[in-house]
Amino acid sequence: MKRRTLCVIGLLLLGASSVSLEQSSNAPYRLVPGWGTLPGGATWGEVPGMAIDARGRIYAFHRADVPVVEMDRDGKILKMWGEKLFAWPHGIRIDRFGNLWITDGQARNGLGQQVFKYSPDGKLLMTLGTKGTRGEGPDTFGGPTDVAVAANGDIFVSDGHQNSRIVKFDKDGKFIKAWGRRGDQPGEFNLPHTLVIDSRGRVLVGDRSNNRIQIFDQEGNFLDQWTQFGTPSGMYVTPDDTLYVVDYNVKKGVFIGSARDGSVKYKLDDAVAEGVVVDKDGNIYVGETVPGTTLAGAVGGHMVRKFEKIWMQFVSAATSGGAHLEEADAASSKAHFISLNRGALREFREARYWIRLIGATKLNGFDKAPALASEATELVAIVSTIVKRASSNNRREPPNN
After folding, report:
1. Apex CA 92: angle with CA 156 and CA 241, to 5°?
2. Cα–Cα distance measured from residue 85 to residue 79, given in angstroms and rounded to the nearest whole number
3. What is the DSSP letter of 206?
4. Can you give the pTM of this predicted structure?
5. Which of 24, 115, 278, 350 is buried most, with the most CB atoms less than 10 Å from its CB?
């Protein structure tokens, strides 16, 4: 390995970015400034919902004349649509089949109090609820806020801004059952505002004004509740049960934890968000509604934000050949790094050191040290070789720890 080259580059990188390492000690994310700027000087309305499709296209649902905004991961506006279709935009989701679900949370001007299902190409496939009519029956809603779709196609709607219940339909939109009423006991709700389904098929409901997440099976039987995520306004869960929760009211921030045990790993203080979604590389996108101030002191509300995961952009190419990764905390170095699950520890200890330096430089920005760009490119290639070799060794050798 080019040890002398690594040492020289490493010293340059460390000297340019030691401050960034310290600033990133709480969580491996950085806020991307100016992300998602609307064209022509337009401004965002309240943004209660965010979604992402299989292509990585981001959807923001905001309260404006043209409410649906589609963006790429760099924040470039690709498409805007939905004019005069919705009374009060609220929730937006994309299910495992690629369909887009939208909740319209109030009745105004003959519209609202409905849930809509669109095909990936924008064709309206299904409508739940009665247009412009508030109610609490099998075909009416009182403030629908969010949608989750189970593996078998069953549909769950959190009906919460006026009602206090979860409504279940089959895949064809036939009413099956509803559960819940206003209250603070298990199985009762005070503004069920968001819901997701985890890998075990459990229904997690963000019971916002009760400051908790309630957990149910798909028949509505209460299983557990968690209070460590503040007042959950929006949630997103990944296939590995990483749980993202946003709270703009009490604890103010973005929580990153686990849907398996309710643990909280990180909290980001740079948002007062209501909607949240995450791409395949772990980058987080949030939408904000009411004006406020983040815990970090920034003005919030009426905007979208992106939190970039620091390390992923550097190691994804190196590890796409089959290395299994997990995030691990560097307990003594106040930084975060990527760690292989098993084996090849000696090789990886050296590799992770350089990955940390690359990530710190990215935090600081190559624009502040342009001379480092070519050296960092070479360093990425060297680290890629180390990680690939470590991965190969890991597959051939039995675990030694």
Report:
1. 65
2. 16
3. E
4. 0.76
5. 115
Backbone angles phi, psi at 386, to 5 degrees: -60, -50
| Helix and strand counts by DSSP (H, E) for the chain | 4, 28
Residue 223 neighbours by CB under 8 Å, 6+ apart: 202, 215, 216, 217
Per-residue pLDDT tens digits for 228-248: 999 999 999 999 999 999 999
Q: Which domain holds residue 301?
A: 30-308
The residue among 274, 308, 342 that closes a domain is 308
Torsion, CA 107, CA 113, CA 118, CA 124, rounded to 10: -70
287, 308, 329: which is the final residue of a domain? 308
Q: pLDDT below 70 — which residues of the chain?
A: 1-26, 311-401
Tell whether 401 is covered by a domain: no
* CA–CA gap between residue 335 and residue 188 (Å, rounded): 41
Specify whether the CB–CB gap between 137 and 113 falls below 8 A. no
Residue 363 lies in a domain: yes
Whether 330 and 279 share a structural domain: no
Rounded Cα gap, residues 218 and 154, in angstroms:
9
Q: How far is CA 163 from CA 134, 137, 180, 235, in A?
A: 9, 10, 9, 20
- From residue 382, alpha-carbon distances to 366, 376, 385, 387, 396 in Å are 19, 10, 5, 9, 22
